[in-house]
Amino acid sequence: MEWFRLSCRRLFATSYAKSSYHEGSINPFADVQWIARPFMKRNMPRDHVLAKPHRSLKAVTMLDEETRNHWHIIDAKGKSVGGLAAQICRLLQGKHRVDYSPLKVSGDSVVVVNAIHVKFSGHTWDTKVYKFPRKTHPGGPKVLTAKTIMARNPSMILNLAVKRMLPNNRLRQLFYRKLFVYPGAIHPHWQLPQVVVPAVPPPEAPNCPFSVKLASPEEAARRIKALSDLQASVVAEVHS
Predict the structure, then answer these.
(1) Which of 78, 113, 77 is nearest to 186 (CA)?
(2) Is 153 within 8 Å of 144 (Cβ atoms)?
(3) Beta bridge partners of 111
(4) Residue 48: how many CB atoms within 10 A of its CB?
(5) Are 38 and 19 in contact (CB under 8 A)?
């Protein structure tokens, strides 16, 4: 039965992309340290060669005229998970509003893009673990590292951080429903503006009427000849 158990483990094992070249055990007291990454550079998404230049607005807020609800579109690229999750929780609960009340849902909706580019400091990608309890499984909870979760579902890291920061009461699910996290740079909400927009080309310099433009050699020779002919005609009229 041992061979059957090993074959089943190989068959149903979930494979994922390696996060770094250092897949061994982590020694925090080693002389040489490295920063853990969820993916290697060659596994990260790249811009297409035909894609137009783009820029990020970092965050955009829009007011829905029908529901009088604010929508916040946030670019998570380069931001830490904890700091961004705390900011999102504040927006979801409505603590930034003057009519905030802990007994009702008065927060705004939040859309997060580029969730695949969030950051953890140090060895957190390799040392932080998430436990998912399984009541019907006698082997205990399912334990996954942050690196494994990012490889399987890039949006899950930020979703779990926000959900566990929200208050543990009956309003948590109502707050959590207003959060939309997407790993890519473009969200599918067509009625909302995008936070990653095409780059605006620099404006062209206006045509100044007083600008100096050098003439070509042929044009300069023609002007000199015309000036000399005019001078000769004036001299002839004076002496006549």
Answers:
(1) 113
(2) no
(3) 73, 180
(4) 7
(5) yes
**Region of residue 126 (left: phi > 0; alpha: psi -120 to 50; beta: else):** alpha
pLDDT in tens, the chain (240 residues): 555 554 554 444 444 334 444 445 556 566 666 667 777 777 777 777 777 788 899 999 999 888 788 999 999 999 999 999 999 999 999 999 998 998 889 899 999 999 999 999 888 888 899 998 887 777 788 889 998 899 889 999 999 999 999 999 999 999 999 999 999 888 999 889 999 888 877 676 666 555 556 677 888 888 888 888 888 888 888 776
Of the candidates 102, 77, 78, 79, the residue with the CA atom closest to the CA atom of residue 90: 102
Check residue 104 and report its DSSP letter.
S
The answer to whether 194 touches 186, Cβ cutoff 8 Å, is yes
Q: Global pTM?
A: 0.70
Domain 54-198 in CATH 3.90.1180.10? The answer is yes
Place of tokens 């137009």: 52
